[in-house]
């Protein structure tokens, strides 16, 4: 629920409020700000504004300490009577929610695409490790339950790739892919947890250390 407001005064917007979970907020030079610019219905009262981060009244309160994605800073930011030229409005006033929803299609597909290679990598690393790790004089990979589970996970990753390719093809043709993009994002999120958790088990105690990639992916 967005509470931040941008009130039009002459040739400027005066912005007040705050944002949580702002990606790269500690280092960004500009922000694409979604704010309420009128009192209308929630899906028609928001606008996107290109906001320089060096303006008076912008306070980066803190960098949020997160469980994962630690190489990407996430900030809490407050705005106090921040003045920005009205020409910094992106598109039409009141269309911000619509623009954001359309952009989410691409963001969801990007999220799916970026998870595929790491999932492939962790499966391959687990195959390599279980092949050379010996328990009772035979490699861990030699056990059928390990073989079968890794094959199953690899199959799931390929199915996710196929869904992504189909969705991207439809999107390039100009179709609304909200449903398929949402499906792909749902599957990618669940599969990221499933693959890392399953593979971690085959690393034994080593998987609980920070020395191996599977531990980082799991986190």
UniProtKB/TrEMBL annotation:
Keywords: FAD, Fatty acid metabolism, Flavoprotein, Lipid metabolism, Oxidoreductase
Gene3D superfamilies in the record: Butyryl-CoA Dehydrogenase, subunit A, domain 2, Butyryl-CoA Dehydrogenase, subunit A, domain 3
Any one cellular-component term (Gene Ontology): cytoplasm
Keyword Lipid metabolism: yes
Domain Acyl-CoA dehydrogenase/oxidase C-terminal intervals: 94-219
Classification via InterPro entries: Acyl-CoA_dehydrogenase, Acyl-CoA_Oxase/DH_mid-dom, Acyl-CoA_Oxase/DH_mid-dom_sf, AcylCo_DH-like_C, AcylCo_DH/oxidase_C, AcylCoA_DH/oxidase_NM_dom_sf
Cofactor dependence: FAD
Domain Acyl-CoA oxidase/dehydrogenase middle: 2-82
Keyword Transcription carried by entry: no
A GO molecular-function descriptor: flavin adenine dinucleotide binding
A biological process term (GO) from this entry: fatty acid beta-oxidation using acyl-CoA dehydrogenase
Similarity annotation: Belongs to the acyl-CoA dehydrogenase family.
Protein name: IVD dehydrogenase
Organism: Scopus umbretta
């Amino acid at each position: 629920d967005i509470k931040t407001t941008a009130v039009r005064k002459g040739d400027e917007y005066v912005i007040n409020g705050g944002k949580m979970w702002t990606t790269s907020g500690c280092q960004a030079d500009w922000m694409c700000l979604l704010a309420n610019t009128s009192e209308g219905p929630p899906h028609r009262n928001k606008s996107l504004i290109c906001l320089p981060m060096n303006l008076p009244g912008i306070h980066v309160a803190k960098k949020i300490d997160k469980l994962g994605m630690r190489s990407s800073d996430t900030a809490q930011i407050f705005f106090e009577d921040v003045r920005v030229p009205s020409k910094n409005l992106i598109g039409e006033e009141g269309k911000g929610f619509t623009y954001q929803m359309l952009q989410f299609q691409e963001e969801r597909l990007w999220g799916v695409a970026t998870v595929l290679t790491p999932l492939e990598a962790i499966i391959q690393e687990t195959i390599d490790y279980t092949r050379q790790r010996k328990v009772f004089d035979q490699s861990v990979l030699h056990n059928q339950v390990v073989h079968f589970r890794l094959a199953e996970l690899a199959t799931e990753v390929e199915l996710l790739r196929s869904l992504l390719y189909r969705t991207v093809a439809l999107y390039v043709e100009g179709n609304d892919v909200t449903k398929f993009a949402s499906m792909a994002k749902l599957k990618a999120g669940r599969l990221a947890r499933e693959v890392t958790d399953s593979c971690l088990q085959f690393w034994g105690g080593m998987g609980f250390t920070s020395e191996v990639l599977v531990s980082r992916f799991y986190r």
